[in-house]
Design brief:
single chain, mainly alpha, 81% helix, 0% strand, globular
Length: 345
């Protein structure tokens, strides 16, 4: 290498550019803000356009979908994002090894989730929900991996696309059929049509994520077997395992106290209108977590581009403040939601 050559020019692996922290913060804030707006709009539109019976079954299926999705992504997606981010520049062959391993974990968990169907006395539309969870979970995995390489657009905007499709398909179709059906008939329509519509609403984001992944696949799968073998021996698998268990435990606790409540209430024989009310309550809890997370959203790009100990310390401190606030606000909503399911007599 001559004096005029740069290390990047002589490197056998393509180097990805470091994202701008300021631009990344704006992108993430804007995406989260748009997601929040559509989510709050959905809290108003779904019950108004579907009616109490159909809205109750919609909340039942949506809560089941979000519960299973949170269970899966709680283990796999954070590992993909964080560890691909940490090793994306220093040793590209490690990225392919990590991604393959995480997809194996995701597949094992996804197949295991099928067993939950036999625990439900009334598994209405479960297999439709199971398919939608597969598409949504795969989209989240691919978006997290792209985020680990510094691509903030996909992980920021694909949830917005899913929200728009969900509102358009279910609200639009529900309003159209409600012009000719009674409230009781709308309840039957909800049990029959909401699950396949949830599957359809996940497909556009899935096609987008698969296309983006294939477009950037050269950043992961480096054709250098010897280098991959060296990377496999050097990779901190124990750290990844511990991180995965911690993330999975956190998701189980969070989802068990929120998204599973309408599902449990449905199995206990509560009326559909009550399921809709429970669903709105749990979504309010989720939105509280979402708003509190704004305090740390701007710092996410540091996970990709932080180069010094000072940045990591600041990231950790501000993120811990955001989670403490989330726990404080969300705890009251959890208690209130539990009271709704088991009212004091």
């Amino acid at each position: 290498m001559t004096d005029g050559d740069s290390p990047e020019a002589s490197s056998p692996h393509p180097q990805t550019s470091t994202p701008s922290i300021g631009r990344g913060a704006v992108t993430m804030f804007l995406g989260r803000g748009v997601t929040l707006v559509f989510s709050l709009a959905g809290l108003l539109l779904f019950p108004a356009l579907l009616g109490p019976e159909a809205h109750g079954w919609f909340q039942y299926y949506l809560s089941l979908q979000l519960f299973l999705l949170g269970f899966l992504n709680g283990c796999a997606a954070p590992i993909t994002a964080h560890y691909v981010a940490l090793y994306r520049v220093s040793d590209p062959p490690r990225q392919g090894i990590l991604l393959k391993q995480v997809f194996r974990w995701f597949l094992v968990l996804f197949l295991g989730v099928a067993a939950i169907r036999f625990l439900l006395p009334d598994p209405r539309g479960y297999w439709w929900i199971y398919v939608s969870v597969g598409f949504s979970g795969c989209s989240q995995m691919l978006a997290s991996a792209l985020y680990g390489l510094g691509r903030l657009g996909t992980i920021t905007w694909f949830p917005v696309l899913s929200l728009i499709m969900r509102m358009t398909l279910i609200c639009g179709f529900g309003w159209w059929v409600s012009q000719t059906l009674s409230l009781e008939e709308m309840g039957a329509w909800g049990t029959r049509m909401v699950p396949p519509l949830l599957v359809l609403s996940t497909l556009p984001a899935w096609f987008w994520m698969v296309g983006s992944f294939l477009k950037n696949s050269n950043n992961w799968f480096i054709p250098d077997p010897k280098s991959e073998v060296r990377a496999a021996h050097a990779f901190p698998w124990e750290e990844i395992r511990d991180f995965g268990f911690a993330a999975l435990l956190g998701q189980i606790l969070f989802q068990s106290f929120t998204r599973s409540l309408p599902v449990l209430a449905g199995q206990m024989g509560y009326p559909a209108a009550h399921l809709g009310y429970l669903g709105l309550s749990t979504q309010a809890f989720g939105q509280t977590i979402f708003i509190a997370g704004f305090f740390s959203v701007a710092l996410y790009p540091w996970l990709v581009s932080a180069g010094g100990e000072k940045d990591w310390d600041r990231f950790s401190r501000l993120q811990s403040v955001a989670w403490r606030l989330s726990a404080f606000l969300g705890g009251w909503l959890v208690v209130g939601t539990l009271v709704l399911i088991y009212p004091a007599v």
